[in-house]
Write a structure and sequence with these properties.
single chain, about 260 residues, mainly alpha, membrane, zinc ion transmembrane transporter activity, transmembrane, Cation_efflux
Length: about 260
């Protein structure tokens, strides 16, 4: 029973930390969406909306863990509950990808003047919020490989730090090696918990969009002829997010239907 109680305390800690992150993310979402509308930055608007879906995905993931832990009828079906959470998260990701693509194309067809400095400041704030949220969720600088889902001893040590600490460690490791490991970033298939992978993808997409938006805005500010980079970045972000969505949706569906 001690292991059972320990599992509960770890999940309770994860939930309380994630509630804080959801609140911070929602506030940042409102600021970025408002700033995107005021400054006419499609990249910033896209980042704001995706911030909102990040909060929603964290909420979905939280509920899936809570449901699996508290509902007696699903005690033996944890994998199915996790897959359902991952599937729901994938649907949200897909809708966001479509919205970002549509709005970006509209900005190309009907260009508007972008207030670069204001948009850059807000985009940087958004990126800093991602970093702050990662710290709240318990990132620690220590060795962490991409085989944590296959190494049970390592899993046990990581579990003591909470589910979200493991998620954020994976994200930080990947982001630090983005240049040499981009294929792993866009295909994080080693995360076998589909519910957790959904949260991972949202965090990764947030950071990716934030960085790309900042780069596009800085380039557009100094090279006016490249102002089209802002909506193009929006389209690129939409494509990458759609790819993640389809992959997660496919694996979640297969697990739910018992196809693999």
């Amino acid at each position: 029973m001690s292991g059972h109680h320990h599992h509960h305390s770890v999940d309770d800690d994860s939930e309380s930390k994630t509630r804080i992150v959801v609140a911070i993310t929602l506030v940042t979402m409102l600021v970025e969406i408002y700033a995107g509308l005021v400054t006419n930055s499609m990249g910033l608007l896209a980042d704001g909306w995706h911030m909102g879906t990040h909060a929603a995905a964290l909420g979905i993931t939280l509920y899936a863990y809570y449901y699996a832990r508290t509902e007696a009828s699903v005690k033996g079906k944890r994998d199915s509950v996790m897959a359902l959470g991952g599937f729901a998260s994938a649907i949200v990701l897909g809708l966001v990808a479509l919205y970002i693509g549509y709005e970006s194309i509209d900005k190309i067809v009907n260009p508007t003047e972008i207030q670069f400095m204001e948009a850059i400041v807000v985009a940087i704030i958004g990126l800093l919020v991602n970093i702050a949220c990662a710290n709240i969720l318990g990132i620690e600088n220590h060795h962490h490989g991409h085989h944590h889902d296959h190494d049970h001893d390592h899993d046990h040590k990581e579990a003591q730090r909470g589910t979200w600490a493991v998620v954020m460690d994976s994200y930080k490791e990947d982001f630090d090696s983005i240049v040499s490991n981009f294929n792993l970033l866009t295909n994080p298939d080693e995360i076998e918990d589909l519910n957790r992978r959904g949260a991972y993808l949202h965090v990764l997409a947030d950071a990716l969009v934030s960085v790309l938006v900042i780069l596009a805005l800085i380039i557009g500010m100094f090279v006016p002829s490249l102002v089209i980079l802002d909506p193009l970045i929006g389209i690129l972000a939409g494509i990458v997010i759609a790819k993640w969505s389809l992959s997660l949706m496919s694996e979640s569906k297969n697990q739910l239907l018992g196809l693999k």
